[in-house]
């Protein structure tokens, strides 16, 4: 589904990603772990197509299509979903309105008809119910005064509505509280599907106590330096990242 080959990327002319290879197949959940500053968030920004992140070498394809040639909104329309650590707060926009705008933008980009409001409301309620999410917060301004758990609920609901092919969650260093941690892990588990892939970026092993990944990668100095099964996360928790920092610098 997602194939990243020899990816090099710079921020302000400083090389951050230095030859990253990664392959995520449909139905798989991959965890990327690694020391602070290894480039995990940079990878998610490059996939999102954020300004100022310049790809200098390598390729990224989603279902065989060159992702890097697409604008950020086109990437979303092709089924890429990114969740970042600090979601946007928009006081004047009700969360419900935001979700509707996001879904309709995606439908338009795919050349499909927008959903009329009643059909949209019905769909949101169904998705929210299936995830055990209350629709009460949807009346409030987007993320305004939301707890960590509510922000994550909103994010998971957005994911459920947009039905992405590949979800990238950058939860690094976010200090998710227990509530938010549960929301993210239950949401990911509920949305796991054979035609959908996940990349869960996390500094800490504890998120992976609730989401059992198929594959765990260690990232250091801008590359994937080790790949293993779920047991690798436990090994990292026990031993820390010191070995990888030293190895990658050598
Ligand atoms: P991680 O998410 O693994 O902690 P990051 O991708 O946030 O790593 O950062 C990797 C490196 O890139 C760090 O050395 C960081 O200082 C640098 N970096 C990230 N974003 C920027 C930026 N906008 N401008 C300059 N340097 C940056
Ligand atoms: Mg960091
Ligand atoms: Mg980060």
From TrEMBL:
Record-linked Gene3D superfamilies: P-loop containing nucleotide triphosphate hydrolases
The keyword Transmembrane belongs to this UniProt entry's keyword annotation: no
PROSITE patterns for the chain: ABC_TRANSPORTER_1, ABC_TRANSPORTER_2
GO molecular function annotations of the record: ATP binding; ATP hydrolysis activity
SMART domains from the UniProt entry: AAA (SM00382)
Keyword Nucleotide-binding: yes
ABC transporter domain boundaries: 2-246
InterPro entries on file: AAA+_ATPase, ABC_transporter-like_ATP-bd, ABC_transporter-like_CS, FeS-cluster_ATPase_SufC, P-loop_NTPase
Keywords on record: ATP-binding, Nucleotide-binding
Similarity comment: Belongs to the ABC transporter superfamily. Ycf16 family.
NCBIfam families per UniProt: sufC
Protein name per its UniProtKB record: Fe-S cluster assembly ATPase SufC
Organism of derivation: Hansschlegelia zhihuaiae
Upper lineage: Bacteria, Pseudomonadati, Pseudomonadota, Alphaproteobacteria, Hyphomicrobiales
